[in-house]
Amino acid sequence: MPINAPPPSVRVVTLRIDGLDLSAREDETIIEVCRENKIPIPSLCWMDGLSVVGACRLCMVEVTGQNRLLAACATRVAEGMEVTTDSEKLRRYRRTLVELLFAERNHVCSVCVSNGHCELQWLAEACGVDHVRMPYRNAGYGVDSSHEMFRVDHNRCVLCTRCVRVCDEIEGAHTWDLMGRGSDCQVITDLARPWGESDTCTSCGKCVQVCPTGALVKQGTSVGEMVKDQHFLPILARRRSAR
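Above: the chain sequence. Below: its structure as tokens.
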């Protein structure tokens, strides 16, 4: 059997995405097929190597025959499926979501250490967000600098839960979790103890590297210096699943 051939039990289906006829394994999701075929589709919570939560809703797509938008990260492909990833409706929807993220917390790019290396910033540029049309909440969130190596700034968190999932599923430390509901929701370490007092954190830095914004960064970095490397994640995920 060829190296790249799917297992015998997995069927190959054909579908159409943005007018392109493609083939994919039936166990793949729309966003995975889009990534494989260089079809741009925005997301903040999805990441190759982590479980799917469908939290950010930025990867919503139109599927022929469905009367609602579907999350590309949580929708498996099917035979004959026709998908639209870019339309005026989707552009308006995604722009509104990005604006809401900026309005909910205090994302001031000019003083952020991830300025120029931030996925939210890239999304805003791609979606044409040059201003926010809704009122800012202007709520103050805390900054935890108690860890000797890393810092968490809740003002810049988008609640993608990448840090929670990479800590649970890859590192196995289970340090991060969520606390609260709605706009009061925050990521926490060890039942809301300061990060520097955590008994479970291994200081591996995986949570910092997968964070899409300037919420989790290295101590001592200044504006524009926080460059993150996420190439390790799919490799570690495959090795962990092969155990």
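The mean pLDDT is 93.
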